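Thread amino acids onto this structure.
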């Protein structure tokens, strides 16, 4: 089973929710939908899963390796787990709309599935399974990698969009943003957005920091560039409006740790 921990959260000086389950892999919200609270006190408990490679092969032994690669069979078990536990996938924009002004009501059990880097194996192996189980996902694309060997093509991106998947930006060249000049940071963050929007004809609302590397300046640039949400790799899944530029994720889906979805999926079968 998924470990449940309790925290006491205080936001803007107001006690919010005592003993709020942290990352329950369960309820999406800590707040009734009948009486929307102010944005400052709205909170969503939504696990955000991260995948990199999804392809056939043997499961890596190391935790780092498992964070970077899952087999299609493992990925399908994750989706079966979500389905069995009545999860519905949402987009980052749904989460933002809920947190900012309550204009979007989230399903009782919400989750976000995200893929980083734009590897072609995500399209070849994960995408068909997402469709099979009627889940959506967000694909964070490095604009400079599109149409290169082993990476998703422009045509595949259009097919993902046509199937109601979300495309987000993961910069132009996957640098460690905090090591760059402000000008280069802006180019990676804003120009990648413009390139993807021009190529695909949609608005790119979401961003993921390569290597999870960010600071206050970098996070501010994602807001200035017009992203509604940006995802880090720091742990946590109780999200507030203030978190939107630096959203946490609790689970690396390939991990075989105590809090992993992979473990939950195994236990669900046993
Ligand atoms: Zn990456």
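Threaded sequence (270 positions):
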């Amino acid at each position: 089973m998924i470990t449940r921990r309790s925290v006491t959260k205080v936001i803007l000086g107001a006690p919010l929710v005592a003993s709020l389950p942290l990352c329950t892999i369960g309820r999406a919200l800590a707040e009734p939908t009948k009486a929307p609270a102010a944005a400052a006190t709205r909170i969503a408990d939504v696990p955000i899963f991260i995948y990199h490679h999804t392809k056939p092969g043997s499961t890596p032994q190391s935790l780092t390796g498992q964070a970077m690669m899952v087999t299609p069979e493992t990925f399908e078990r994750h989706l079966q787990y979500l389905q069995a536990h009545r999860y519905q996938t949402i987009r980052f924009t749904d989460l933002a709309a809920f947190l900012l002004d309550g204009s979007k009501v989230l399903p009782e059990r919400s989750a976000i599935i995200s893929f980083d880097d734009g590897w072609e194996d995500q399209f070849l192996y994960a995408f068909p399974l997402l469709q099979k189980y009627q889940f959506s996902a967000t694909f964070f694309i490095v604009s400079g990698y599109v149409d290169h060997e082993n990476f998703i093509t422009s045509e595949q991106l259009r097919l993902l969009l046509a199937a109601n998947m979300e495309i987000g930006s993961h910069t132009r060249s996957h640098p460690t943003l905090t090591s760059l000049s402000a000008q280069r940071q802006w180019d990676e963050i804003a120009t990648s957005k413009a390139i993807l929007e021009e190529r695909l004809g949609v608005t790119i609302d979401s961003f993921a920091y390569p290597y999870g590397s960010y600071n206050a300046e970098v996070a501010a640039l994602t807001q200035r560039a017009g992203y509604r949400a940006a995802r880090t790799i720091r742990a946590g899944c109780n999200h507030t409006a203030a978190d939107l530029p630096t959203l946490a994720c609790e689970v690396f889906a390939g991990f075989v740790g105590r809090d992993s979805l992979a473990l939950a999926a195994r236990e669900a079968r046993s």
